[in-house]
Write a sequence for this structure.
């Protein structure tokens, strides 16, 4: 967008992972709001962060607001008279849904997204959110990370656990508990080395399994792994588009993972931990052979370069009068 003459400002809440990921990038960014204690009512924290963002947006004088899986400025974006576009690939919570459905100008979702959305605002694309940054037009894995860790390709497993455990929400939808995470990692060690993804929840006894690498290098590590396992839907989806098989252990599914499992056979959602361990054993011992290269090629053939699609969308919005 900048190369086409647009001024772009990235707003974020300033969590440590985001700040580390932005470190090597030349992107103008601004922190809004603040982190609240877990017991703080959602309405209070949401109102504070939105009003802070409103003030910052006024200062930037934007023509368009883009956001992913939420619109922090809603409903205040209407006060600015600024068009807003929300990209959804997971169903928003009850509070966000009301504001997104009523105040976003456009709601963009993958074709495989099944939740009901306001038809007059809906646009669909034939892609996955991770392909906005993992499409070959923007990403190629650097195997130098393997030399740094002194390990070969496909000789290790990545375990990644969702942050819902840390926040103590929706536990009924996720069968993995802290003790089970620990047991899972230690059992997988019978097959190969195991790395635990430090970007999300890590039980204290598993801290030593986290590789000493910059967070941006996890994508390189992900691309060369033999398997990704856990209850982190984002990392599982990233693995799939990189051609790495995944096992997602949860009662809750996402449209992207469901599509990858059914259409491309690159991963499996399992609700039972013991069944997940058995499947992992079959994959890691080659008892179950997956044609991951074929799956990845088919995904890239079928799915759109989402970043290119987004740029085209902005140009179209200007052409048809959404933008001044």
């Amino acid at each position: 967008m900048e190369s086409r003459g647009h001024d772009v400002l990235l707003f974020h809440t300033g969590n440590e992972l985001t700040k580390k990921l932005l470190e090597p990038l030349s992107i103008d960014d601004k922190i809004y709001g603040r982190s609240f204690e877990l017991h703080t009512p959602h309405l209070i924290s949401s109102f504070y962060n939105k009003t802070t963002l409103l003030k910052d947006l006024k200062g930037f004088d934007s023509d368009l607001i883009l956001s992913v899986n939420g619109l922090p400025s809603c409903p205040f974006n209407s006060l600015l008279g600024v068009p807003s576009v929300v990209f959804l690939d997971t169903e928003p919570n009850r509070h966000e849904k009301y504001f997104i459905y009523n105040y976003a100008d456009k709601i963009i979702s993958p074709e495989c997204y099944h939740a009901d959305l306001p038809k007059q605002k809906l646009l669909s694309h034939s892609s996955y959110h991770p392909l906005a940054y993992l499409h070959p037009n923007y990403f190629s894995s650097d195997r130098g990370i393997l030399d740094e860790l002194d390990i070969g390709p496909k000789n290790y497993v990545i375990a990644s656990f969702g942050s819902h455990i840390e926040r103590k929400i929706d536990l009924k939808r996720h069968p993995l508990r802290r003790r089970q995470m620990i047991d899972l990692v230690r059992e997988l060690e019978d097959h190969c080395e195991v790395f635990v993804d430090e970007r999300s929840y890590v039980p204290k006894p598993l801290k030593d399994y986290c590789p000493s690498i910059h967070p941006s290098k996890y994508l390189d590590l992900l691309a060369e792994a033999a398997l990704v396992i856990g209850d982190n839907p984002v990392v599982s989806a990233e693995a799939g588009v990189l051609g790495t098989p995944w096992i997602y252990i949860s009662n809750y599914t996402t449209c992207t993972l469901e599509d990858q499992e059914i259409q491309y056979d690159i991963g499996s959602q399992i609700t039972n931990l013991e069944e997940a361990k058995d499947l992992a054993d079959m994959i890691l011992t080659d008892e179950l052979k997956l044609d991951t290269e074929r799956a990845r090629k088919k995904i890239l053939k079928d799915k759109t370069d989402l970043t290119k699609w987004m740029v085209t969308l902005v140009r179209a919005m200007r052409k048809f009068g959404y933008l001044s």
